[in-house]
Amino acid sequence: MIDATIEALVEATIREELITEQDRIYSRNRVLARLNKLDFDKPTFVPRDSISNLLETLTEYAVESGLVENLLEEKDRFMAEVMDVFVSKPSEVTRTFNALRAVDVEAATSFFYKMSQASNYIQTQRIANNITYKAPTRYGTLDITINLSKPEKDPREIARARLQPAPETNYPTGLLAIENEGYGGHLKHPARANHRIIPLTLGGEEWSFQYSPYLYYNEHSILLSNEVRDMVIDRSAFERLLDFVGQFPHYFAGSNADLPIVGGSILTHDHYQAGRYRFAMDDADVVATYRSDRYDQVDIETLEWPLSVVRLRSTQREQLAILANQLLGHWQNYEDGDIVPYTGDVRHNTVTPIARRRDGRYELDLVLRNNRTSEAHPDGIFHPHADVHHIKRENIGLIEVMGLAVLPARLKTELEQVVRFIEGEDVEVADMHKAWAEELKTKSGDARMIVDQAVVDKFVKGLEDAGVFKQTVEGQERFTAFMSSFLSHVDKVEYGASTTGMNR
Asked: pTM surpassing 0.85?
């Protein structure tokens, strides 16, 4: 039986073009070696199945044989090691990528994306567990994802992680470090034996391109600095983002903000996210247009979006980067009511930047962010407020900024209880949802549709909380005042070629 699974896995990797027919015997033997298996009976029938399913079967055999502990991390390590048999060395992957790129850049990314899926580095089977849907709002159709792609750990694994001391090593230097390529992993670091990255040059620096193992949207990719350094949003960051979309015009590229609360989960490694997806924010309506006498080749717009967005558009990439840097500098020092730029030496104002190519021009969206907290809002004044925490309390990062909600796995069960409650069943609803569920029960219609729409409404409210200038008459007047002060400053003051925002 297991011999048929091994041969089926070899067949599947040939079918997915990870290896060729010439590699069949070599690859089969390398898998046998990983199973400590010395013999092989060539099967008369080879089942046709997906690589991920065949890997699961092979892994269960390894567990039953005592070769692998029945723990998620150990099984993941085994599967990554098996798939490393079928994945070309980094130099060969890069050589193929660059050869395709010289002819057709879209063919190059398609090759790399397909390879990353087929190698089981991208966890397609687990990603399929996510609950996803779209829902209409006043800002367009937004995306909702309840993230179920990362399996819950067995209690034994949690206990083991507490008892087992962390390995005394600083290698790799982080989850995004280039040293992860091919790394075996351990209990507290994910397996990356089947992981490959593509070297890039961005803004004259050495960077790398890889896909995310847990995709949230089509071709969700990560751009990472080869140097381990803190995230910084400055002119160089704008130039690198624009450089990337210049090289890969079918992708967008953006960055989380570089401050806690409004930033991403990893601020200790300079990195961006990219991909091939059209978010609701891409199609947001224009509220107002502005012009700069000094930068007359750049269109300047503000958008109808729950967060406060300035969109810069031009064929002149350098002008975009310079003007974006000046807007960042002006925003870093801007004060207006509850928008306070500094507490002592601690900075609060920054931006979330997103770059793309459209209709022959470069676009750079700058989302204004402020991470100040208060007694009334200890998680952040411009952060989802307490009334939406039962749905979304986590940071509003780059992906959420653009209109895709990544919601916690707990909601799968909790929302199902709310649906059943609305339908009249006698179920226990989580305390945090009770008042909300009572309110929803007064609505007429299909219970699941009511809950789905109510979830996206809560997400929109969280985005609006994160907006520094609200989508109200007063909020837009304040936004206009900011833009007027910025453009007045830009056209009056001669700026140098600094690669950072203006100093305080």
From this structure: yes
